[in-house]
Design a protein that fits this description.
Mean pLDDT: 80
Shape: globular
Strand order of the largest sheet: 3-2-4-1-5
CATH class of the largest domain: Alpha Beta
Distance between the termini: 38 Å
Low-confidence stretches: 53-60, 89-96
Structural class: alpha+beta
CATH topology of the largest domain: hypothetical protein tt1634
Length: 171
């Protein structure tokens, strides 16, 4: 089961940097994401969703595995894997798994114009290692985390960008 985390940031640029940092953390196996979306509240009040994580690759890998297994049954494993990968990628591209778009838009309506939020579905996280790398201050909008885990996230976001003495970190 995945946990939902939604954090507001002062602008889209900061939200994009946060998502890039999450991507690096995922490569380091500090976090596994099921979905990541930037929700932007434009100056004109409109809400725009920026889908950040392409889950079609996950579908392709799964399809290739199943296609290969089915292909083995008919002595055509490469053909089965190729067809399975294509079908899995297509299915991953058109299926909308993850955070509900309507929910994100509704919560995005509550953001101030010109701001953004990052919505992530976290499958697995090594929280103590990930939280020490939080670089940008943000405000927790909503989570499905335990109270203790949510408070640790709030503390990390509140102290992001400051040194141990409480002074702004040197750039």
């Amino acid at each position: 089961m995945s946990d939902l985390v939604a954090v507001a940031y002062p602008d889209v640029d900061t939200a994009e940097k946060v998502v890039a940092n999450l991507g690096r953390a995922q490569k380091q196996h500090l976090i596994e994401l099921d979905d990541a979306v930037i929700v932007e509240r434009r100056e004109d009040g409109k809400v725009k969703l920026h889908q950040s994580v392409n889950l079609a690759g996950v579908g392709a890998a799964s399809g290739a595995l199943w296609g290969g297994l089915i292909g083995l049954l008919f002595l055509q494993p490469l053909l089965g894997a190729a067809l399975g990968a294509a079908g899995g990628a297509a299915g991953g591209a058109v299926s909308d798994v993850g955070v509900d778009d309507k929910f994100m838009k509704d919560l995005g309506e509550k953001l101030q114009p010109g701001t953004a939020a990052v919505f992530v579905l976290v499958r697995r996280v090594t929280a103590d290692k990930l939280l020490e790398h939080v670089e940008y201050q943000g405000e927790v909008l909503q989570t499905s985390l335990s109270n203790d885990a949510e408070q640790r996230l709030r503390d990390a976001l509140a102290h992001a960008g400051t040194s141990a003495e409480g002074e702004p970190a040197a750039s």
